[in-house]
Amino acid sequence: MDTTRGMENTELTPDSVEQSQETVESPLIVPPPQMEAVLEKANGLYQELAKVPDGNTIAEIVQNALKLLRDQTNRGDVKLINKSFKELRYALKIFAPYRDVHKVSIFGSARTAVTHSDYKQAADFARLMADAGWMVITGAGGGIMAAGHGGAGAKPSFGLAIRLPFEQATNEFIADDPKLINFKYFFTRKLMFVRSSHAVVLFPGGFGTMDEGFEVLTLIQTGKSTPMPIVLVDSPGGKFWKSWQDYVNNHLLAQKLISPNDLHLYKITDDVAAAAQEVTHFYSNYHSIRFVGDELAMRLQRRPTPEQLQQINEKFADICIRPGYRVSDALPQEKDEQAIAELPRLVFQFNRRDHGRLRMLIDFLNDLP
User: Fold this and answer.
1) d(CA 231, CA 223)
2) Rounded distance between C-alpha atoms, residue 4 and residue 332, angstroms
3) CB–CB of 73/83 below 8 Å?
4) What is the rounded CA–CA span in Å between residue 363 and residue 284?
5) Torsion of CA 42, 48, 53, 59, to 10 degrees
């Protein structure tokens, strides 16, 4: 696995850029004659951008930004879009050198004391993941977040901090690290947590932990996020997540607000070694997925045998719109992903509904000899 060298933080942070730009005042509503001149100049820019890789997409971003002028968008809304864009661009820049390294997001209470067993659990788990070559992402605060960074160490750690008027001082393990990113908005921060992670592990926490846990479950249940392991870790002998499971069973499941198969989207344990095993085993055969037209191409480390393919067709026919799974090499549409071109594919027309069953299929593939 490519661990990639560290990256110097040689550019301004989102905060400092934001402050410097606040000193420059410019009208947001451009008179029609000036707007025509702006659009005419922009057309030349679009043509030049089309000549560079991904330039067409960048041109579309510029075009949509100019539409804010045309639409006479409220200044406050324009500032929100601008700040959000800057936060995302900067965060993506910091994560870019490590895109090929597996990362786990750790959530839990900022109020957990260093002497609490949950703190030790989180530190031990993070240490196990770092030893396995994974990187750790936390919210950069105290409690469980500090335990995650302390257990893993600074080198394999990312901090996604949020500016709050209380309870969110950056922990000592990540405070001066170039992989610390400060966010103004929860939604941009949460997007980077999910987009940058290959697994999510939750320790006991409050409203924030519940919010993050339910959100990632919702994203995977609805197919808005790619499959990933979700593990809920209790204190040894603890009942925090077991009580949460009782609520899920007695209310969500009992009233048919979720499917029984949705329970396969996560695992509850009080053993950090089992939690680490759940995360790493998820990628023991499964690599990733990509939709190509109406078909799902599941990239694997090992090519299923004809006998195993027959088992898959028998056990998981219910999530195929048309009967029949097939094993394939990389599809022509995947030519832009040369780094994984040699991986075999399990290709089928997924119903895009039963993501709990899709997770069960991934587990079945990972358990194959």
Assistant:
1) 18
2) 29
3) no
4) 10
5) 10
**Tokens 């809920």 sit on residue:** 232
Give me 350's structure tokens: 């997924």
pLDDT of residue 23: 44
> Cα separation of 210 and 138, whole Å?
15
What pLDDT is recorded for position 20?
42
Chain position carrying tokens 């009080």? 270
Confidence (pTM): 0.87
On whether the CB atoms of residues 18 and 86 are closer than 8 A, the answer is yes
For the chain, give the mean pLDDT: 91
**Which residues of the chain register pLDDT less than 70?**
1-32, 166-168
- 333-368, pLDDT tens digit by residue? 998 899 999 999 999 999 999 999 999 999 999 999
Beta strand ranges found along the chain (DSSP E): 103-107, 135-138, 157-162, 180-183, 199-202, 230-233, 267-269, 286-292, 295-300, 326-328, 345-348
Six token digits for residue 103: 């990362």
